[in-house]
Write a structure and sequence with these properties.
Distance between the termini: 31 Å
Radius of gyration: 12 Å
Strand content: 15-25%
Number of strands: 4
Largest sheet: 4 strands, parallel
Order of helices and strands: EHEHEHE
Number of helices: 3
Low-confidence stretches: none
Shape: globular
Length: 82
């Protein structure tokens, strides 16, 4: 399994990546929305985990763009918002 994880909170990202790798799940991580979009369009992932609030491009903008380009990968959205 291969996951794209786009999260700008480094401490949280490192903890999640550590746990996923223990389960032998491959993770591509970036803290930047634009890089996340590039990765999402370049590679085939089993799932994408997107934070909503990211630098340069939001998780929602990533999702909108990949859907417009026909990418049907399942997506989990994360938010610290109320």
């Amino acid at each position: 399994m291969r996951i794209l994880y786009v999260e700008d909170e480094k401490f949280l990202a490192e903890a999640v990546i550590h746990l996923l790798k223990k389960e032998k799940i491959n993770v591509d991580w970036t803290a930047d929305g634009e890089e996340g979009l590039e990765l999402a369009l370049k590679h085939n992932y089993d799932v994408m985990v997107l934070d909503i609030m990211l630098p340069r491009l939001s998780g929602l903008e990533i999702l909108q763009t990949v859907r417009k380009r026909g990418v049907k990968t399942p997506v989990i959205m994360l938010s610290a918002l109320n």
